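User: Sequence in, structure out. Go.
Assistant: Echoing your sequence, followed by the structure tokens.
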Amino acid sequence: MLDFSALVGKTLTKCWNDGDEVHFVVSNDEGYKLYHEQDCCESVYVESVDGDLDDLLGTPILQAEEVSSVNDNDGCQPIDGYDDSFTWTFYNLATIKGYVTIRFYGTSNGYYSESVYFTRT
């Protein structure tokens, strides 16, 4: 697993969201992805993308940060109002062309991971 800030300084040539994973390809054809390996009694998915992923292409990434909020920390609320355990994970990216925030939402019975992983592919 890599630190998400590894994207800083890299130039993306492709970026797409398939609902469960977000994929990145950089100028030297290295691939990266944000994902969660699903287990029983949990669900982690891309809840939304704010901004245009195309704004991340063709110019160096200036900011790549991960911020998480677990079970009402920082004022975040569960989507359906009664999840036993939930985690919001925000991935903030910026280039000179714009900003994008990718929001993952994870929920479980409290005994399973709701973490999102960032790895090379």
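User: And one key feature?
Assistant: The CA atoms of residues 10 and 44 lie 27 Å apart.
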